[in-house]
């Protein structure tokens, strides 16, 4: 009997440290997507079994108080988001995303410039995440655009990290995850991200490797989310990953983003149907943006021709003078495999509500 005690003790210690490590905030893989109320996609319809993490977007920054708030119309859904998605997958982790492309950039710049306002932002974000049951926070400031703003962004991240560590220590709860959605490259039009602060402070960054071409800013058709760019102009997911990692971001802190939507153009010449064809502007919607589910419907309803271009790892389809660039299953799978082969932490998509019966999410999850 007595001879088994040391073995039992060793097993107990091993189990303790296994549980300790398992409950830490370190991630092994991120398979994520964003949800937002404007998609009109019910949270209950999210197949959370296909994800490790889900982002609930967006909380707002109050420009007067510098506190993080949730619009009254969204409070009920945000406050039950975690509980709802965990019904299908109890292991899925949720993050409250703050900001977004439509958010006031000047409000974020002002908040980040001052210690007092930064503290107001940080403290309120932690309170809100805890009260709503989120496992983490995600900052989507699009984008710090000057050297000063980038420096302040780095300071904000460092203080945010210190605050969540201190909060976890004082409450005994697992530390909140911290992430940020950033430009696909660490070089934002000659303004550099504070890569060291990003690497030190965040669990990972979501690289927004999309919106490279669109009717609102491109007079020719082009791959909205190319993984590769044979012209080496820099507009590609691979170029963005190399930019960040060469600047010092560990690959395991990078999560590659791709869109569940595309852009539709009106061709100037119906006989010119490949990339970089002349256009007369947006088609189908006012800005040309169109969700993947709608794209699939367009293809079926119009008998559209579909093309996968393996040079850029992107898809397009056309019918008559309407041309749509997007990501289909093959390009999504190619990107997921690329992320895995490059040693990245994972992938994310914007946004889950634009998928077609979870087809892209399922393909992505199975490809990792």
Automatic annotation (TrEMBL):
Q: Does the keyword Translocase apply?
A: no
Show the InterPro entries listed in the entry.
Chitinase_II/V-like_cat, Chitinase_insertion_sf, GH, Glyco_hydro18_cat, Glycosyl_Hydrlase_18
Into which family does the record put it? Belongs to the glycosyl hydrolase 18 family. Chitinase class V subfamily.
Give a GO cellular-component term.
extracellular region
Q: Does the keyword Cell membrane apply?
A: no
Give one Pfam hit by family name. Glyco_hydro_18
Q: Which GO terms describe its molecular function?
A: chitin binding; chitinase activity
Signal sequence annotation: 1-26
The name this protein goes by in its record: GH18 domain-containing protein
Q: Which residues form the GH18 domain?
A: 29-368
Which keywords does this chain's UniProt record carry? Glycoprotein, Glycosidase, Hydrolase, Signal
- PANTHER family per UniProt: CHITINASE, CHITINASE-LIKE PROTEIN-RELATED
Q: Name one GO biological process term.
A: carbohydrate metabolic process
Which parts of the chain span the membrane according to its record? Answer: none
From the record, what ranges are coiled-coil? none
State the organism named in the record: Microthlaspi erraticum
